[in-house]
Amino acid sequence: MEKKPKIVILGAGYGGMMTASRLQKSNAHRDADITLVNKHNYHYQTTWLHEPAAGTLHHDKTRMKIDSVIDTNKIQFIKDSVVEIKKDEKKVILEKGELDYDYLVIGLGSEPETFGIPGVTENAFSIRSVNSVRLIREHIEYMFASYNKQDEKHEDVLTFVVAGAGFTGIEFVGELSERIPELCKEYDIAREKVKVYSVEAAPSALPGFDEELVEYAMNLLESRGVEFKINTPIKEVQDGRVLLADGEEIKAQTIVWTTGIRGSSIIENSGFETMRGRVKVDKDLRAPDHDDVFIIGDCALIINEEINRPYPPTAQIAIQQAYTCSNNIKALIEGKTELEEFKPDIKGTVASLGGKEAIGLVGDRKLYGNSASAVKKLIDNRYLFLLGGMPLVLKKGKLNLF
Amino acid sequence: MEKKPKIVILGAGYGGMMTASRLQKSNAHRDADITLVNKHNYHYQTTWLHEPAAGTLHHDKTRMKIDSVIDTNKIQFIKDSVVEIKKDEKKVILEKGELDYDYLVIGLGSEPETFGIPGVTENAFSIRSVNSVRLIREHIEYMFASYNKQDEKHEDVLTFVVAGAGFTGIEFVGELSERIPELCKEYDIAREKVKVYSVEAAPSALPGFDEELVEYAMNLLESRGVEFKINTPIKEVQDGRVLLADGEEIKAQTIVWTTGIRGSSIIENSGFETMRGRVKVDKDLRAPDHDDVFIIGDCALIINEEINRPYPPTAQIAIQQAYTCSNNIKALIEGKTELEEFKPDIKGTVASLGGKEAIGLVGDRKLYGNSASAVKKLIDNRYLFLLGGMPLVLKKGKLNLF
């Protein structure tokens, strides 16, 4: 009997989780030993994390046990952290062991991009995991709880700086501006004591997005008390203080960093050639010169040839890549050599703004308010449906559409 | 027309609030100008505060707007803090003004007793106000939230020291031990990582209380994972560390101080003669040599002549004093000179232990578990009934008796 090929999937984010799910559904485990490795025993929806970070949604709604979606009799699950990929030895070093592979899928996600600005890692929070957003939520509440216990009131305790007005930054500010009135009530604090700054280096919030929609979003958030500092690069982050390039300084005990991401440093450290931590993959999603390594999600760089610039890393693309990746692995273990090409099919972009508010662009159609918010929830629910069918939608979905 | 006498009540705790309520009910405001002064615009039940501190009850359940109980058309309410009482000038200095009085009621409550142990004020929390217990609750949650974000796990983050195993300390430990399993679930932490120490200098927990009941309480709390250090004085409290007299040291990021109270320092600073901040009042509750000043609640020292020791300051005594005090004021403004003597009528003592557990002594009868817990809730509800009738019981009461 021939030895079954070993497939190892690193990371259970959108890409890795969906690849595992597709392989299981296509019965690939009959012809291959498939192993999924993840740091936690749960999968979470990264694009929802701004909500538990602000405290408007419980974090359990954004995550699910991996073995509730993947049948671990069919796909082995290992809870461990990846230390290094030894691609020449076809081996993965984990904290507590190692794994050989015939085919590897790298879906290790991202890290915050600090652009080398000093003090970010030490002094700012980032929205990137269940653990990190739970801490942000509790930190915010702790700030409110401590204010009335201070003998001398320090306003920086109630000042919140969100660095970066991209999608994550804007969505977080949206949730935060919805939560603040509740926190003011809970802790007996007047709303006007609380300051929220959205700071962006580029000349616009949501750089590159439709101008009319950006204006709608900014007006809405300003009406909830958010102050924008656009075209304002950050020079340095210190403990309790943000130094802006224009010389101004904002004292704030809460600084949340959302200026974008780079691919996981594990990839760079394992000897792959990267740009901002991302590998420019071949059309079939394999790493150049590595026919046995697929790279998907935030770690993969795909060029949008229409504008000759990379697609921004999104959940939408990661999920679509998982379909191509799992089809190609299935083909390879069936002995085929012709692989599918990955072609992103961007269905639209919607940013939630907290409450029942959102903005979106679906094709050429602009969406505002309620309808954009409902579309956003449909997108979130559709992912759950693709991953775990109707039961998962009912369990973890956003069912209050309007 | 004769000028109405001015009655000023300082503090809206059990004593002050009930005095105001009794004066209003007896229509004393027809014959006198009555003013109630309090730091906050709400009254709270101090004896419940261990619950919101542990996070097992929302703090709004322990407080009520003063004007929801007192008719401010009948009794003037001033939200301000007392700075000093100038008793020779019959005047009270507030932060934002001053008040003259003909009769003064001092119900300014208490401060934590530190026994001069270094570092307590700077490094320990205390259970004494809505603001302080909200901070404790959030601090505890923050500790749990930060644990999984630490690169190196520091166990002191999940170590909780409660200094003092008197009623407040034991009741707080009871609630905390009920809450910890929930927090472990919420933050993905194994229960055995969490340590709770109850440290007491005296040779027993709940010093002076019935031994059998104390043993019941300790066994129960130990079964929930609490570690007792009895007969163990504390030498010093440092940032993140408790030094015990026996040379041991406990590293803990959360230290809650519950070793007893002393009367408000305002009284001492205003020239009254005090013992641990409390004034040994005359039988009619007036301060010696000050016929126009009544002192009630935690600021008043009453000797239990049977054992020649002071009664411990309790809500029960404060409430009973308010009855005597309001009767005596009423008598004075009606021109009577014969005043009522205060005689405490101790109906019993019950300590809650979290969940449906409690211990109690009512007369000679010992109560355990469910029945003690139900009696404790009846006591809490009875107070609400005396203060605001059935509507207040329904709004703020503990209605899940069993």
UniProtKB/TrEMBL annotation, chains A, B:
<keyword id="KW-0560">Oxidoreductase</keyword>
<dbReference type="InterPro" id="IPR036188">
    <property type="entry name" value="FAD/NAD-bd_sf"/>
</dbReference>
<keyword id="KW-0274">FAD</keyword>
<dbReference type="Pfam" id="PF07992">
    <property type="entry name" value="Pyr_redox_2"/>
</dbReference>
<dbReference type="InterPro" id="IPR051169">
    <property type="entry name" value="NADH-Q_oxidoreductase"/>
</dbReference>
<feature type="domain" description="FAD/NAD(P)-binding">
    <location>
        <begin position="6"/>
        <end position="322"/>
    </location>
</feature>
<dbReference type="GO" id="GO:0003955">
    <property type="term" value="F:NAD(P)H dehydrogenase (quinone) activity"/>
</dbReference>
<protein>
    <submittedName>
        <fullName>FAD-dependent oxidoreductase</fullName>
    </submittedName>
</protein>
<dbReference type="GO" id="GO:0019646">
    <property type="term" value="P:aerobic electron transport chain"/>
</dbReference>
<keyword id="KW-0285">Flavoprotein</keyword>
<comment type="similarity">
    <text>Belongs to the NADH dehydrogenase family.</text>
</comment>
<dbReference type="InterPro" id="IPR023753">
    <property type="entry name" value="FAD/NAD-binding_dom"/>
</dbReference>
